[in-house]
Specification:
Layout (H helix, E strand, L loop, with lengths): L15 H13 L6 H14 L5 E3 L2 H11 L7 E4 L6 H7 L4 E4 L11 H7 L4 E5 L10 H11 L2 E5 L20 E5 L12 E4 L3 H11 L23 H12 L1 H19 L5 E2 L9 E2 L14 E4 L6 H10 L5 E2 L8 H7 L7 H9 E4 L7 H17 L1
Parallel strand pairs: 2-3, 2-4, 4-5, 5-6, 8-9
Antiparallel strand pairs: 1-7, 6-7, 10-12, 11-12
Bound molecules: pyridoxal-5'-phosphate (PLP).
Pyridoxal-5'-phosphate binds next to α3 and α4.
Length: about 375
């Protein structure tokens, strides 16, 4: 460990406006199901450009409500990516639906539409694309596949708040059910929290009822018209969300600035963007395609083939720099191996990327000096590893 201050992987960005709105909630005494909830939903929906949005307790609970709204249940197969955070597959298991994984595109790291097409079978009822690391999935192709085969779509946009797809549409605004997450390391944070974009008014009403113990509008506290859950977000969290939406464009712009600093600092190490340079060298996240704009969530690099990732992580830790092997493939997690018999080797692109990926410190207020320190430490670690 050096004398310099340590650099964490992520750091939430909260300011005076967040404090002001949270204080307003505390002084109002309305801690849940109050005015901040509705305001957060309205502000978020307006910003994304959709009619409505349903705020819930997490990105995971938003996904669960999405699965239920689509009616996916026992034995139904849903095609999805193995290179994701575990929630995007777990939400199917909650309803006894079956995740059918298929391989990813090595450039975008998202569901490969060709592999998805090949994975659709007789029991397939839907597609669950994940907009991984803030890069919009290939929605035009996936929507065509869904239309051809009569499938539902649930978009997991937990990592892609504010991203824009290749057709210039903001992620979440294509008319499919889409979900977002606001955990403390996300682009917009509420501590814990999530948002579901319903596909129509009926779905919105169902989601609002299910998040609130199955109550119907106007029903008393002990009235429950259907099976429900406690997936509510508090007004304290919603207040944070309102302040974050107000600052969303500047928060996202600053993150893009830090990503650009990284690209410059890592260029001397021979780094190239995925799909552009030596695929066995140090690979950065892909450049935007068409009108697409990545919403920068994490700064993940793929280490050169043959580098010892554990040694790199240990070496960076010695320099006071946090890093993380990110992401492990879902199908290789113990629960999935046991339940579905995965052994490894099934999805070679996802597994290769997963084995080489490393998340570096990334947050809005990182300056040039901090980025340079990480890049130098990584270069030194790679020389040794
Ligand atoms: C792709 C993806 N899906 C779902 C989630 C779940 O969100 P939450 O942690 O808010 O439940 C996350 C969060 O980390 C995620 O990255």
């Amino acid at each position: 460990m050096t004398g310099s201050e340590s650099i964490p992987l992520a750091r939430p960005d909260l300011g005076d406006r967040e404090e002001e709105l949270v204080l307003e909630v505390l002084r109002s005494g309305r801690l849940s199901l109050g005015p901040m909830l509705e305001r957060f939903e309205r502000d978020f929906a307006d910003w994304i450009g959709v009619d409505d949005a349903v705020a819930v307790s997490s990105g995971t609970t938003a996904l669960h409500l999405g699965v239920r709204a689509l009616g996916w249940g026992e034995g139904d197969e849903v095609v999805t990516s193995p290179f994701s955070f575990v929630s995007s597959a777990n939400c199917l298991l909650y309803e006894d639906a079956v995740p059918v994984f298929c391989d990813i595109d090595p450039a975008t790291l998202n569901l490969d539409p060709e592999a998805a097409t090949a994975a659709v079978g007789e029991r397939t009822v839907g597609l669950l694309p994940v907009h991984i690391f803030g890069c919009a999935a290939a929605m035009p192709e996936l929507e065509q596949l869904a239309a051809d085969r009569g499938l539902g779509i649930l978009e997991d946009a937990a990592e892609a708040t504010g991203a824009v797809d290749e057709e210039g549409v903001r992620v979440g605004a294509r008319g499919n059910i889409a979900t977002f997450g606001f955990y403390a390391n996300k682009q917009l944070v509420t501590g814990e929290g999530g948002m579901a974009i319903p596909s129509d008014g009926e779905v919105a009403a169902l989601m609002r009822s299910e998040r609130n113990q199955g109550r119907a509008p106007g029903m008393g506290w002990l009235g429950h018209e259907r099976l429900g859950f406690n997936y509510r977000i508090t007004d304290i969290q919603a207040a944070l969300g309102i302040a974050q939406v107000e600052r969303a464009e500047s928060l996202l712009g600053e993150r893009a600035r830090v990503a650009e600093l990284y690209a410059q600092a890592l260029a001397p190490l021979g780094a190239a963007r995925a799909g552009e340079g030596d695929p066995d060298g140090l690979v950065l996240l892909s450049a935007d395609r068409g009108q697409a704009r990545r919403s920068w969530f994490v700064y993940v690099v793929q280490l050169p083939v043959g580098a010892n990732r554990d040694a790199v992580i240990a070496d960076l830790a010695d320099q006071g720099i946090d890093s993380k092997a990110y992401l492990p493939c879902i199908h290789l997690m113990p629960h999935y191996r046991e339940r579905f018999g995965f052994r490894g080797g099934e999805f070679p692109v996802a597994e290769r990327v997963s084995n080489r990926s490393l998340a570096l410190p990334f947050f809005r207020v990182m300056g040039e000096a901090e980025v340079a320190r990480v890049a130098q430490a990584l270069a030194a670690a790679l020389d040794k590893a």
